[in-house]
Amino acid sequence: MLLKTFGWSFAVTALGLVAAVFYGGWTGFGIVAILSILEISLSFDNAVVNAGILKKMSAFWQKIFLTIGVLIAVFGMRLVFPVAIVAISAKIGPIEAVRLALNDKDRYQQLVTDAHPSIAAFGGMFLLMIFLDFIFEDRDIKWLGWLERPLAKLGKIDMLSACIALIVLMISAMTVATQAHQHGGAHVNKAETVLLSGVAGLITYLVVGGLSGFFENKLEEEEEREHEQEEEARKSGKKVPAVVMAGKAAFFMFLYLEVLDASFSFDGVIGAFAITNDIVLMALGLGIGAMYVRSLTVYLVRQGTLDDYVYLEHGAHYAIGALAVILIVTIQYEIHEVITGLVGVVLIAWSFWSSVRRNKALAQAEGNDSGSSGEKTEVSSGV
User: Fold this and answer.
1) Largest CA distance in the chain
2) Under the phi-then-psi rule, with left for phi > 0, alpha for psi from -120 to 50, and beta for the rest, what region is 288?
3) How many Å apart are CA 107 and CA 90, to the nearest integer?
4) Is Ribonucleoprotein one of the keywords UniProt gives this record (predicted)?
5) Nearest to residue 225, comparing CAs of 211, 243, 210?
6) How far apart (Å, rounded) are the C-alpha atoms in residues 233 and 224?
């Protein structure tokens, strides 16, 4: 069962890592491995959401999502989108960007280095908004309670996330402008680039969130309509059919899942720029990660259960927050890509370990409760 579900993912992983060694040596291997882990972790909750919705779809639409959806997710967002970002930022054509990345690495690296402030500002704002919206939301399950409780209270203030993000952007732009002035006016336009790119990142986040909200509302409307049909069937004494969406409802659900997947892909792709500027290594790492997300979705649909690693979502969002800060810092200062990659992996591993410990503690508590109730039963029956 496991091999059948994850077989393609294992095969793509092996090919991707071999290609990374041939392309970039063992350094390339390490970068691709780190990118794969980050992509899987950042999209883990997406796979859980996908599985919950996918169960309600007919077999036909499930197959559409897991075939055409894979093409859109892997080739569209993970392969084309990074090239598009480099091409727009460096003001060159996408084909030229790929050609330079493969054949003229020095020229490509120079273009990406020159474009890095705009990429970092755009990506930093987008990721920072994801992190702030998560951390300011009051959740039933808290990982780092000492930090999350007071932040959840602050989160009751409207538009706080956007205000903080804009303040961070203003400080970043002012810092760049000040340093440019101190160096005799060199790179005077850099501050303006940072400001405009950061605002573009913020707008992109709001647009993606708006689209997700639109399709989510459509989905809720369809579910309400089906619920009403179920109620009518019960009242009339008819057998209530199993809810399997098809036709228009399934089409809206498919669109919603694709928008949702694209929004989750944004954080993985943009976060990848904090680790490497090489679009080949980026495409390999993100492509491998995307395959595992799809396999995990299928596994969840078929199995129906999975150990509840409740803190993994928290760890992934803290990793997003760390990548956002790193991207903003790299507008001015260089940070080694290995340090960047390890920060995210350590946070995710820590949250995974915390989840395992929590599950063991809950299981032990349940065992103790059942054991003590069993002892009471024996005593009472003896009497």
Assistant:
1) 94
2) alpha
3) 11
4) no
5) 243
6) 14
Do 323 and 271 touch, CB atoms closer than 8 A?
Answer: yes
Residue found by looking up tokens 């599985």 in the block: 51
Query: CA–CA separation, 117 vs 125, rounded Å?
Result: 12
Where would I find the beta strands (DSSP E) of the chain? Answer: none
Between helix 105-135 and helix 190-235 the angle, nearest 10°, is 50
CB atoms within 10 A of CB 220: 10
Contact (Cβ atoms closer than 8 angstroms) between residue 60 and residue 245: no
100 burial level (CB within 10 Å; 0-12, 13-18, 19+): buried
CB 355 within 8 A of CB 309: yes
Distance, CA of 9 to CA of 248 (rounded, Å): 31
Residue that has been written with the tokens 């602050």 in this structure? 154
Q: Do the beta carbons of residue 174 and residue 191 sit within 8 Å?
A: yes
pLDDT tens, N- to C-terminus, the chain (383 residues): 677 777 878 888 899 899 999 988 888 898 888 888 877 766 665 666 667 667 767 777 777 777 777 677 666 777 777 777 778 877 888 888 888 877 877 787 777 777 788 888 888 898 899 889 888 888 888 888 888 888 888 888 888 899 999 999 999 888 877 765 555 554 557 888 889 989 998 998 888 777 767 766 776 776 677 777 777 777 776 654 544 555 666 676 777 677 666 656 666 677 777 778 787 888 888 888 878 777 777 776 766 544 567 787 788 788 888 888 888 888 888 777 667 767 877 887 888 898 888 888 888 888 776 666 555 444 433 33
> What 3-state DSSP class applies to 171?
helix
* Residue 46 to residue 48: CA distance in whole angstroms: 5
CA atoms within 13 A on the CB side of 95: 0
Angle between helices 247-272 and 44-54 in degrees, nearest 10: 170
Provide the token pair at 314. Answer: 């928290």
CB atoms within 10 A of CB 374: 10
Owner of token pair 């001015």: 332
Q: Which residues pair with 57 in a beta bridge?
A: 245
Instruction: Identify the CA nearest to 323 among candidates 340, 335, 336.
Output: 340
Do 135 and 148 meet the contact criterion of CB atoms below 8 Å apart? yes
